[in-house]
Automatic annotation (TrEMBL), chain A:
GO molecular function term, any single one: hydrolase activity
Record domain Carboxyltransferase: where: 27-302
Signal peptide: none
Protein's UniProt name: Allophanate hydrolase
Keywords: ATP-binding, Hydrolase, Nucleotide-binding
InterPro entries named in the record: CT_A_B (IPR003778), Cyclophilin-like_dom_sf (IPR029000), PxpC (IPR052708)
UniProt KW Repressor keyword: no
A Pfam family the protein falls into: CT_A_B
From TrEMBL, chain B:
Transmembrane portions of the chain: none
Annotated ranges, domain Carboxyltransferase: 3-203
Entry protein name: Inhibitor of KinA
PANTHER family associated with the record: 5-OXOPROLINASE SUBUNIT B
GO MF, any single term: hydrolase activity
Keyword set, alphabetical order: ATP-binding, Hydrolase, Nucleotide-binding
SUPFAM superfamilies noted in UniProt: Cyclophilin-like, PH0987 N-terminal domain-like
Amino acid sequence: MSDAEFTVSFAGPLVTFQDSGRLGNMRYGVSASGPMDRLSFDAAHAALGNLAGQTAIEISLGGLILQCRVGAVTVAITGGDFVIDHAGHKSGSWTILTIEKGERLTIRAGKAGSWAYLAFAGNLHARDWLGSQATHSPSGFGGGALQTGQTLKVLQTSVRADRLGEVPKPDFAPDGPFRVVTGPQDRHFAKEALNRFVTDQFKVTDAYDRMGMRLDGPMLNLEDALSIPSEPITRGSVQVSGDGVPTVLLADHQTTGGYPKIATVISCDTCRLTQLRSGQSVRFAPVTAQKAVDVARQYATNKARYLAQIAVPRGTLEQRLMSENLIHGWIGD
Amino acid sequence: MEPRFTPVADHAVLVSFANEINEDAHAIVVSLDRAIAAHPPVGFIETVPALVNLLVSFDVMETDHARIENHVRALLAGLEIQKVMGIQRQVQVCYEPPFAPDLAAVASATGLSEEVVVNAHLAGQYDVLMYGFSPGYAYLSGVSEQIQVPRKPAPVRDVPEGSVIIAGPQCLVTTLTMPTGWSIIGRSPTPILTGDPEHPFLFDVGDSVVFERIDRDTFDRLQKDAGHV
């Protein structure tokens, strides 16, 4: 066990420290923050054998370049389809590699996906606020955004030769329309708006950050355009502004707001939603609250099984070649 | 008041008591919020009290909407509907330039002198209604009718933290440098984000607030003591 140090050679905007989030402070105006794509974040830690929920780096489309100055550490990179360059060796995300003193690691946007996660086999050092290092991006509270030129410290690092290589992607993540439970302020919308919300197609706009994702599509007319008393908001709330434009509120959402919410995206569907990019299409499908509960529980079971599977070390390259040889028996051919 | 229970995705229930801002509804929200804190349901995560409703978040692996609703209904049945007496909190305000750029405009809009506006602000009975917008942004009710002014047509950028701002019947002490369309009538050195891990926010929903006038020298001294400079 030793420590590693990196220089941030380049950090795009909204590259932030995130842990599993800061629960229990919504009543004080503090959303939970934490990773936009919780599944990919959890997978990065599981694949390294880390404790769930510890601090990692969330990388935006702006990308990140690190130069290792001291030590060596094994890292996992998951999330969207990003492009990795490790000391000249190129690969995709969903990979584990060891970065050593003098080496450079470049992570930049690839063909798809909006967020990547970089987890370390060690303790990434970041600022704490209210017991969590998760960055609340509008205030900068918590670990904060990484700045070009700063130093990163990873304490008690380990090098895990038995974990190197590809990380299996989740195979249970749903596709198709994003499931929503209608409301809680659906009564403020014209019937036609409620119908169009779940039948028409929307597109992700450029107005997309950790607070929310504005969508482009049919106008969702309010029945009574009066402002409602400010009501609580959650991650996944689809609020509709006075001009009929919906915004899905995400990790760093406001905790209350006066725009009516036509529906709420169920928790397990917010991860894949956050990986969309500007211009991609979105459809919503209504489910009952009971169905949402059933789906969430099934998802949690599948997710736990998947994380347990990828948490098992695959063995060193040598060990893996040995086992492949025994299985396929090519030596005897 | 008959509560309305609305499911929010797979992880929360919104309990509403009115459709429009209403003091009685807010009093029930505050009472229910405290009752839930004292007797949390199985799988409880957190509540968010707002103006006329309360969000109850839960862990879907341990409970569901119907169980939360039953628990809340049982608490409501035994709830004493009376105004919860929160703690009275004191917030100091300096109304001097350059901290009160909109004081003259509020005075002219209401036909009062700046001194009368300040005194009316100091005389208000303020209650903490809810938090929102950003960490520590506590919405206070109770701005005296004679100094109520609408929001500006467009927000002003980079309004410093500690600004005391008003719009309609509401008042707020900002905790971050942020844009606002409310009128800025003073600056407070009183930390709302206290930095105390045991009690990180000055107010709880349901507390009352009294503003105390301070001069510029006192402001500078307190600001320095609080470690802001």
